[in-house]
Amino acid sequence: MVLLNQEGQVVFINPAATSLLGLKAAAVIGKKMDGLVAFHHPKDGGIYELTELPYAKTLVTGANFKDVTMGLKIGQNPERWLSVSSDLLLKENEEIPQVLITITDVTAHVQGVLNSQTREKHLHSVISAMDDILFEIAPSGKILNGWTNLPEKLFFPLEQMTEKSVYGLFPEDLADQFRSTIQKSFRTNTTCEMEYQAPFTSHEGTWYKLKTRPISASHENLLVNISDITEAKRAKEQLKAMDIRWKFVLENADLLLCDWDLTKHSVSISGSLAKQLDLHTTEITIDQIKNRIHPDDLDTFNYVLTKCLNGDDKLYTQDYRIQRSDGSYTWLHAKSVVTGYESDGKPDRILCIGSDMTGWMNILEEVRISEEKFNQAFQYSGIGKALVDIHGRFMNVNQTLCKILGYPSEILENLTFQQITHPDDISTDLTYLAELVKGNIDSYNMEKRYLHKQGHFIWCSLTVSMVQNADKQPAFFVSQIEDISQIKRQLEILEHQTSELDLANNRLENNLRQLEEFDQIVAHNLKGPASNIAMLLQQMENCEDTEEKEQYLQYLSQSSDHLLQILQDLTQVLDVRKATVLEFELCYFKDILQDIIGSLSNKGYDFDKVKISTDFQLTGIQYVKTYLQSIFYNLVSNSLKYIRPQVDCQIHLQAYECGSYIKLIFRDNGKGIDMTKEGLHLFKFKTTFKQNDRPGVGLFLTRYQIEKFGGNIVVESQLGEGTVFTIVFEKNKLHKPQA
Question: Model pTM?
């Protein structure tokens, strides 16, 4: 019991109430009842609102409420059901009412009612979903209860059958069958069944299955289930007819068919399959087939067989080899599926349709061998090989190529060939590739540079061909890459050695020519003065006249001076030829010219009357400095010697690169040279123009100092217009001194 005041506060609660409500007396006194517990409806489980509570209604209306069922959930404990009553108490001589709440635990009763309702709902749900007829039958055969969702299937209305014997409702012969089946089920306490055809014209042609089942070990009655199996019976009859036709097809069809009847434990095969396996019968056992399966394929065969036997209705496809009588194997492509089931759902028939794919498998084997050969040739080739897609990405590379380029395969196969090709080689490569795609060429070969993983470029020989797809469109490219860096280095060495050999040959030829010229110089230039001296001495011996002797002495002195000058010039030539240590250094043309102007100024040349201009597009070269100074000195001084009278002297020097050559040009507007007379002798040991009757060696030495290092000098000139000396050096012959 709980006693509330007018405000709904608890003023008294007995121990039984605190136990039922899960409260403590000390904690509830003075508190409102609605704030202590939350009751819910028994129907929908919703929480009672304050205005719905019986004791709250009593406080408001003064009315009493009896036995209101309310639910209460306390913590994790099972739900508790309570019967709650509320009565208004008003003592004599008091105007303030109180409410007495009486609480009774009715959990067991309510739970029983709910369980009963639940079972009733379940039963109605089961019956409403059934297409069968159910009867509860006593051992005597009396029908105690009946249920059906399809009353039209009954021979009699259900209410007419209840409390009557099942044996009295049917003809005697059918009643005897019912009695035998039902009594057997009672006697053995097992499930029994039978099939029968409707005995009444109202349901003529309808077939039924009667199935009896004991309700429980403690219950003496039977549950009888009657189901309409007319469609199943018809299907079975049709299946039997189809079986006859199917066997005819099996025996005469060209297809490789295998029909396994699990109920008869026999396998029927088509005539074509029997012929394929060299069998003389179309009826065999499954073991005969298993014994012919190739050992490597037996697990796959058994796997599919097990799946089918377990009732899996999936279509299974498998390839396996089956042995012929001569020991050879035939490849079969087979599709297996369960085509029939027993009443309990177990498969009773499996069909397998096969096709001979021996020829196809032989082709596949040839392809496999071909691919294996290609793979062996590809992976283990001593030449780097790659399959490249149409965008240039490496699809597959062998280890040789990885070794050549220094990249692991997983990195290389994420790159394009454009990414690791030298910029100067990409255009040529892509041009060839475009011609290959157009079909203008079958393949191409080129030398190109690839970027090694370590950052340097290596020279390779690349050969590319193309593979097309079935539509004759480019599928991918096959690249063969060979490292030729060592060959390139050897060729460079060979070219350098060849160049040096050419230089040596040129030097030898120059030396021979110069020796010949030197012999001519000695023979020609010394012979004349020496002969003059000998002749003058002879004349002096025969001469008695003093004045005449003086004249001869004067001639003799001139001849002697001339001879000495020639000897000095020859000594200068020999000094140049003798030089063995020649050091190359960077010589700037502007600095050399300034030095020469200074030297010539000291010798009396007036440069105020000379205009010297330059166009040095190339500022300097590696050369022997003394040689280059001598070349500048001789050519500039030669221009100064042969100035035209009354004409301002102009000298223009020019230097520039021209391909693999360097050109150095000296141009003046002097007297010029008659090339028809003097051109052939210009650079020999004689001077076309004599100054004070003294032969010069300047141009002779200039030519020597130029040709010494593989250079060449040519002259163009017109009398009265000026002269142009053009010196040509080969770049590759200036890289180091020549002995």
Answer: 0.37
Cα atoms in the Cβ-side hemisphere of radius 13 Å centred on 538: 6
Q: Can you tell me the mean pLDDT for 215-225?
A: 79
Per-residue tokens: 130: 């059934």
Give SS3 for 601: helix
How do 610-616 and 649-658 pair as beta strands?
parallel
Query: What are the pLDDT digits (tens) for 295-327?
Result: 999 898 888 888 888 877 677 888 888 888 888
700: three-class secondary structure by DSSP: helix
Cα–Cα distances in angstroms (integers) from residue 281 to residues 193, 270, 292, 293, 353, in the given order: 39, 9, 15, 18, 18
417 exposure class (CB count in 10 Å sphere: 0-12, 13-18, 19+): buried
Contacts of 104 (CB under 8 A, 6+ apart): 67, 82, 83
Q: SS3 for 436?
A: helix
Nearest 5°: the CA angle 505, 509, 514 is 145
Q: What are phi and psi of 53, to 5 degrees?
A: -65, 135
Q: Which of 86-95, 165-174, 299-308, 650-659 has the lowest mean pLDDT?
A: 86-95
The pLDDT assigned to 356 comes to 81
| pLDDT band, residue 739 (cuts 50/70/90) | very low
User: What is the Cα 18 distance to its own chain's centre?
Assistant: 75
Decide: 452 and 406 in contact? Cβ < 8 Å: yes
Question: Is the pLDDT score of 209 beyond 80?
Answer: yes
